[in-house]
Amino acid sequence: MRILASLCIGLIAALHLYIAWFEMFAWTTRGPAVFTAFPADLFESTTAMAANQGLYNSFLAAGLIWSLFIKDDIWQRRVATCFLLFVAMAGLFGAYTVSPRTALVQSVPAVIALLLVWLGRGR
């Protein structure tokens, strides 16, 4: 169970690294094809905003990756829980403000990983 939890955490971290890259470096090139409801002429003027969001996504990824290297089981679980809750809440907020699909992409995997983290805890 712990290996599966770590795998899920790693995959969620990779997803957030991809989101960070996308928002920081591919916003104007790939953004219009992904966010078709957003007016194409606004991508250039929102580059700094997207890069800022990308930086926050990189922080989420960094925290999740950090949790994988913590040796103490209790602290590993606490740090993983903290960052997975951040991801889940960001997904819920994104679902409310942008698209319900955001919850499916971010919140659902984070909640699954949280369950695995807490079901796999050993004493």
Describe the protein's architecture and organization.
By secondary structure, the protein is mainly alpha-helical. The model has no long low-confidence stretch (mean pLDDT 94). The chain is built from five helices and no strands. It is elongated and about 50 Å long.
Summarize the structure.
This protein has 123 residues and is mainly α.
SSE order and pairing:
Layout lengths: L1 H24 L1 H8 L12 H22 L4 H25 L3 H19 L4
Helix pairs in contact: 1-2, 1-3, 1-5, 3-4, 4-5
Features:
123 residues; 5 helices; mainly alpha
Average pLDDT works out at 94
Number-wise, the strands total 0
Helix content: over 70%
Low confidence ranges: none
Number of helices: 5
* Helix and strand composition category: mainly alpha
Instruction: Estimate the global geometry from the Cα principal axes.
Output: elongated
Largest sheet: none
State the end-to-end distance: 14 Å
What portion of the residues fall into strands of 2 or more residues?
under 5%
Order of helices and strands: HHHHH
- Rg measurement, Å: 16 Å
